[in-house]
Amino acid sequence: MGAKDVVSSSIDKLAEEKRQQKRVPSEKPPFTLATLKKAIPAHCFHRSLLRSFSYLFSNLAVCCTLLFLAKTYIPMLPSPLNYVAWPIYWATQGAFMAGLWVLCHELGHNAFSEYVWVDNILGFIIHSALMTPYFSWKYSHRRHHSNTGSLTHDEGYPPPLKDSIPWHAKYMENPVFTAIAIVCLLFLAFPLYLLFNGNSRKYDRFATHFDPYSPIFNDRERLQVVISDAGILAALYVFYSVSSAYGFAWFLCIYLVPLFFTFALVIAVTLLQHTNPTLPHYDDSEWEWLKGALTTLDLDFGPVLNTILHEANATHICHHLFPKIPHYHAHEATEAMKPILGDYYQIDSTPIHKMLYRTAKECIYAEPDQDSKDKGVYWYSSYKDKI
């Protein structure tokens, strides 16, 4: 069997697996949000400042320890061991920094503590250090929660329609291009989203997270966007000072490369939670908040990565339904809701690299089923499905 036959066989197998996957129901759920809330133990809604700080401090301690070990011992390693040690450090530190990023995401939802001012101060400081404008992202992310699953209003990964796909796209469906596209997406998508609102909803004019008058924000939010910008500028000044003192190459290896690994992991998790052939999307005629909130799935990456990410990947459905439940109660809340959710609940334990490749091959554009009466319900499809 030639290389072309192997690739063709692999693609056919992926397409067949997709056809066998069970879609999340697109009809109005037979339950309400109140029904789900009643099923969750009351203590799951309690936010403990002490417990939340314990996760934050332990996460910071691991990041600081990794930084110390890299700064102290990797330069002492003989070649080529040092060339092996640096990528290990980048990936490991990037993962734990992603854990910090997840806690900041929780701070933005006021799921860290009962005190909004505590959450905002901590989120502003830590997210600024992670080159994320805290308030700006907080507000755009809340709009994502308010419009999840909407073709036109969702801020997070709205699917492109078939008419918007370039004519040459189908000729670029090959393993090499797909791998390159995945790498570019992982490492560049988050900065491009913040800077240019890339891979988000379309506005009638230029949108960015750094302009207080961007159409993303309303009048009540503009001052806090300026504060977010000030936080990023302060972080850049600190970065400049450190790189001037120790050298840019040192700062690149110690911080910037791990930061891009953080962005890559954040993009991978959020993309896979919302981009799947089993998940419906709705136009304005079909969209309702509860239906939209259920257009996501949980991801099981195994105990190690799940723990590093504070199980945010594995309890995402609960998060969309009740975003103020802290991560340490989200698993219990999820288990309590499962009997009611039924087929509206899905979890995928496919290894992350396989899931990314599958998504890149199968989720090219969205369109309604041709034989369905619900033309306002859209599903991901690919050119291979039409063969």
Automatic annotation (TrEMBL):
Q: In which pathway does it act?
A: Lipid metabolism
Outline the extent of the Fatty acid desaturase domain.
85-345
Annotated region (Disordered) at: 1-27
Query: Could you tell me the superkingdom of the organism this chain comes from?
Result: Eukaryota
All copies of the Fatty acid desaturase N-terminal domain together span 17-66
**Which residue windows are transmembrane per the record?**
55-74, 86-104, 116-137, 176-196, 223-242, 248-272
Choose one Gene Ontology CC annotation of this protein and give it: membrane
Which UniProt key words apply to this protein? Fatty acid biosynthesis, Fatty acid metabolism, Lipid biosynthesis, Lipid metabolism, Membrane, Oxidoreductase, Transmembrane, Transmembrane helix
Q: Which Gene Ontology MF annotations are present? A: oxidoreductase activity, acting on paired donors, with oxidation of a pair of donors resulting in the reduction of molecular oxygen to two molecules of water
- Has UniProt tagged this entry with the keyword Transport? no
Task: Give the UniProt record's GO annotations in the biological process aspect.
Answer: fatty acid biosynthetic process
| Main localization category | membrane
Q: Where in the cell is it found?
A: Membrane
Extract the InterPro entries matched here: FA_desaturase_dom (IPR005804), FAS_N (IPR021863), Fatty_acid_desaturase (IPR012171)
Q: Which family does it belong to?
A: Belongs to the fatty acid desaturase type 1 family.
This protein is called what? Fatty acid desaturase domain-containing protein
Lineage per the UniProt record: Eukaryota, Viridiplantae, Streptophyta, Embryophyta, Tracheophyta
